[in-house]
Amino acid sequence: MRPKKSCGNTTSTTSSPAILPVFIPHLGCPHACIFCNQHHIASQPAPPSPARVAQMLEDYLSACRLPGRPVEVAFYGGSFTALPPAMQRAYLQAVAPLRERGRVTALRVSTRPDAVTRQGLELLRGYGVTTVELGLQSMDDGVLARAGRGCTASRAWEAARLVRETGLRLGVQLMAGLPGDSRETCRRSARAAVAMGADLARLYPLLVVRDTPLGRLWEQGRYQPLSLQQAVEVTADMFEILEAGGVRVIRCGLQATPGLEGRSLLAGPFHPAFGEMVHAEVFMRQARWALRASQWQGPLQLRVPPRELSRAVGLKGANRAALGALLGHPVEVVGDPGLRAGSLALAVPGEAGPRVQVSREDYYQTAAVAADGGNG
Question: Could you please report the per-residue DSSP string of 194-230?
Answer without folding.
Answer: HHTT-SEEEEEE--EESSSHHHHHHHTT---PPPHHH
